[in-house]
Every structure is written in C-alpha cells, then in structure tokens.
Design goal:
Elements lengths: L2 H13 L12 E6 L2 E7 L8 H9 L7 E4 L13 H8 L3 E4 L11 H8 L3 E4 L3 H7 L1 H9 L3 E9 L3 E3 L11 H12 L3 E5 H7 L16 E5 L10 H4 L6 E6 L4 H9 L3 E5 L9 H10 L4 E6 L1 H9 L5 E7 L8 E2 L15 E9 L2 E8 L2
Parallel strand pairs: 3-4, 4-5, 6-12, 6-13, 8-9, 8-12, 9-10, 10-11
Antiparallel strand pairs: 1-2, 1-3, 7-14, 13-16, 15-16
Helix pairs in contact: 3-4
C-alpha cells in the first residue's frame, strides 16, 4: 500500500464523525509502522477526543517511528484537549501525511510548522479533494461563519412533491426514505418550515436501526411562533434538541411556554422573503457551532434559500412518476426571471436507490 491507500483509510474513518462532532471538524488518523497499520482513530462524538489521540492510544509504543496519515492538519492550540501536535511529537512519530491545512485561525499552518520544527517530516495534499468535501461544513463555517446548507428534495420527475389536494405519502419508495434518514444521521441539524410541521407533524429524527442516537438538532423556521404545542416536535423537545427560529416581537408568555417545553428559541430580524432574514438565521446557527444543515421542507423555505443564494448542495430524489401542472411544486417561485440569474449546480453523482434516482449536486461557482 502507498500514501494514497493509507490516507483513503483515514478519510473513511473521518466520515464516521459526520453529524456528531460539531462544532469541531471530523478527522481520521491511521498510524503505519513498517507497512503495518498499528493504530486507527477518528474524532469522537462531541468533538473529542480527536482522531490523532484515538489512534495514538490504540498504537501505544508502536507509534514510535511510524507515519501518521491525518485527514486534516493536527491542532496546535490548547482547547478542551491538549494539542494533537504535542501528542504526535511525544509519541515519536517520524512522518506525518496531511490531506489539507486547517483554516481555523488558531491552527492555519502552525500545526504543520510545529511538527517540522520538531524534526518530523510532513507531506501535504494527499487526498485533498475528498478531505475538503468531508469537512465542507466546517470549512464553510470558518470561511463564511455559517453552516453548509444541503437542500433535500423528493419529487416526481416533473418536480412535484404532492398532488393538488396535498397527498404526498409516499412519492418515493422505502429505500429512498431510508437513505434520507442516513442523510439526517450525517448532518448536525435538520431544518424545515412551519408549514411542513403543521401539515405533516413530522418527528425529524433518524430512525435507522443502530443509528437512532444520531438524530440531528431539529430546527423550525416559524416566524410567528405558531407551531402547535401538540406537535411531535414540541412533545419530544426534551429528548431531541429542538430549536425554533422566529421573528422579533413575539409575546413573552407564548415564548415561555415553548421554553418550558425544552425548546431553544432564536430571534432573528424580519425580511421581505420569509418573515425572517435567512442569512442572519444561518449566521446564528454558525455561532452555535452548527456546520452542516439538511433542509427538508417545504417549498417556500426552499425557494427563499435559493433566492438568498444560500443552498450549497442538493440531494434530489426523483420518483418515476408524473403529476403534471396540478401537482404542488418542490420549490416555490423565487424570482428567477432570466436564465442568467438562475442558481446553477454541477452533478456530483447519480445513483439508483430502490425504484428511485438520487442526484447529488453542488453549487457551480
């Protein structure tokens, strides 16, 4: 095996932390000594211990003279855990291979410099493309102070999410719905509009066997704080973190009722688009450490996010059926009157999921 092969293993380990390590990045680390893997690690739930620490613990004395393959530059600052650079130096590793530098101002090349100053050989760039995609949410939060936004849609071939009378269960099949739950497990938060909650009364949890504990923070954009107190989201707010984004000026008595139910309320300014400023909304989520948001509904929220140019990824499930003009659109009108102004995305992958098709796309900047 070569550097690319060992780094591929580290990147696979890094993916295990998606959705569970915010506000930290997810990092995978593989320690190799004389061609043998002697330690593996990845960032643990809550963001610590870090992947390097986990791998070093497993390797023990076999880490001396080893090469460490790390998907992100090791940290060099004291936070809730000691610097990973210090741990690597103390363990006596001979070489460190890093996929990408950490843009966090507390690191940003300093970790690599510290390792080199200690006489450790450092190589950078192996697996950089995949590493960048894995931590796209963390990188977005550092660069733009907001989380990465993935808009998930499930529609007919002609972009409809329900019949004219609102019937939508189920447009896509069971396999697609299970995949959607897996998407929930790999995101820090899931966001919907109030209309979706009122219409469907969803749980918004991950219900895949073995992954029930990986439900994301549930966020509802509800300007008027009109969410029914009898909804499942409110009823289970003390079991699954639930936040509501609402506009200023809501009656304090009503606010307190939701707080008593275990819900965190976040006030944001009013905008013409959706009662609240979505740019400010995402900035507030970034302040709270959220790095990856999965938006699941509805059409109004999807349109508002697209109009504000805040959608970074699309996960679009297409069912092999047509509803025509009578059906309800997946995305409400958002003012794209010219092709030049339409949001554009590039296709990352297309796969068959049961009887449906899943397209993964990213913003075409």
């Amino acid at each position: 095996m070569n550097d690319a092969d060992f780094m591929r293993s580290a990147l696979t380990l890094a993916r295990r932390g998606l959705g569970t390590v915010w506000p930290n990045p997810t990092v995978g680390c593989v320690l190799v000594n004389d061609g043998e893997v002697v330690g593996r690690g990845w960032t643990q739930p809550g963001g610590r211990p870090h992947g390097e620490t986990e791998a070093l613990t497993r390797a023990g004395t076999r880490a001396k003279g080893a090469t460490a393959y790390v998907s992100l530059e090791p940290c060099c600052h004291h936070g809730k855990t000691p610097p990973c650079t210090d741990a690597l130096i103390a363990a006596g590793v001979a070489r460190v291979v890093v996929s990408i530098e950490d843009p966090d101002p507390r690191v940003s090349g300093r970790g690599i410099a510290k390792l080199r100053d200690a006489g450790i050989a450092v190589d950078i760039g192996v697996g950089a493309k995949e590493a960048t995609e894995i931590n796209a949410g963390f990188l977005m939060r550092v660069a733009k102070a907001r989380p990465l936004v993935t808009l998930k849609l499930a529609s007919t071939l002609d972009g409809k999410i329900a019949t004219a009378n609102g019937e939508s269960r189920w447009i896509t099949g069971d396999a697609a719905r299970q995949r959607a739950h897996l998407l929930r497990a790999t995101h820090d938060a899931i966001m919907v509009g109030a209309n979706t909650v009122v219409a469907d009364d969803p749980l918004l949890t991950c219900r895949l066997p073995g992954l029930e504990g990986r439900s994301p923070v549930r966020i509802v954009v509800d300007g008027g704080l009109r969410l029914p107190l009898t909804s499942k989201l409110v009823a289970e707010a003390k079991a699954v973190p639930t936040w509501i984004i609402h506009r200023h000026g809501i009656d304090n008595v009503r606010r307190q009722v939701f707080v008593d139910c275990g819900i965190e309320l976040i006030e944001v300014p009013v905008s013409e688009t959706l009662e609240m400023d979505l740019t400010t909304t995402l900035a507030e989520l970034g302040k709270r450490g959220i790095t990856r948001v999965l938006v699941e509904g509805g059409a109004r929220l999807a349109g508002a996010l697209l109009e504000a140019d805040l959608v970074d990824r699309l996960a679009w499930f297409h069912a092999p059926m047509l509803l025509g003009g009578d059906g309800l659109n997946a995305v409400e009108a958002f003012g794209a009157t010219e092709l030049a102004s339409a949001p554009r995305f590039k296709r990352l992958s297309v796969e068959t999921v049961g009887g449906d098709i899943l397209e993964n796309l990213m913003r075409a900047d």
